[in-house]
């Protein structure tokens, strides 16, 4: 049992894995914060999708007017959905990449660019900034994840 514990702690001693864990935690926390931003927008815009969410705003027909969509709430929701579509693959592929033995400097470059691109993407979506800002920030993050996937496949399949 002691030997198993030693093996699991060796991963934490790996600088690339620690960098992966750091930047993954940052983007996952950013993604989680999008839920709070959505809730904030729903409350301030009084735009809800579930009848029980309007109970404190009135009864019957007076509460039904709050069952609606709002452009700002939908914008936040789309940004959050885009996070789910991009951060989840980063987490999985990034782990495989971190375990594939990349150079620390290269791994840091991948992790930092992805994290910066996702944060910029969120600001570009919510402010909103004119295109192509949002599109470019998405493409940069996507390219980083693809680059890591290529490195993993190259290492595993000896391409």
Describe this entry's structure for a reader.
It is a single chain. The protein contains six helices and no strands. With 159 residues, it is mainly alpha-helical. The protein has one domain: Up-down Bundle (Four Helix Bundle (Hemerythrin (Met), subunit A)), CATH 1.20.120.550. Helix 4 (71-99) packs parallel to helix 6 (133-157). The radius of gyration is 20 Å and the shape is elongated. It starts with a helix and ends with a helix. The mean pLDDT is 91.
Q: Helix segment count?
A: 6
Specify the biggest β-sheet: none
N to C succession of SSEs: HHHHHH
Q: What is the annotated CATH architecture?
A: Up-down Bundle
Radius of gyration, in Å, reads 20 Å
Q: How many domains, as an integer?
A: 1
CATH topology: Four Helix Bundle (Hemerythrin (Met), subunit A)
CATH superfamily, please?
A: Membrane associated eicosanoid/glutathione metabolism-like domain
Give the helix level as a range of percent: over 70%
Task: List key phrases describing it.
159 residues, mainly alpha, Four Helix Bundle (Hemerythrin (Met), subunit A)
């Amino acid at each position: 049992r002691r030997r198993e514990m030693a093996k699991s702690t060796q991963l934490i001693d790996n600088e690339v894995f620690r960098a992966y864990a750091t930047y993954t935690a940052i983007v996952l926390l950013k993604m989680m914060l999008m839920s709070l931003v959505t809730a904030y927008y729903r409350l301030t815009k009084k735009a809800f999708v579930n009848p029980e969410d309007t109970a404190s705003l009135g009864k019957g027909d007076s509460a039904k007017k709050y069952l609606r969509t709002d452009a700002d709430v939908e914008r936040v929701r789309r940004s959050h959905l885009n996070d789910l579509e991009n951060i989840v693959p980063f987490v999985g592929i990034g782990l495989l990449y971190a375990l594939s033995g990349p150079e620390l400097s290269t791994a840091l470059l991948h992790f930092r660019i992805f994290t910066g691109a996702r944060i910029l993407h969120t600001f570009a979506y919510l402010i909103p900034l004119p295109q192509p800002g949002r599109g470019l920030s998405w493409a940069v993050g996507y390219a980083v994840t693809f680059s890591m996937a290529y490195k993993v496949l190259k290492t595993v399949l000896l391409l």
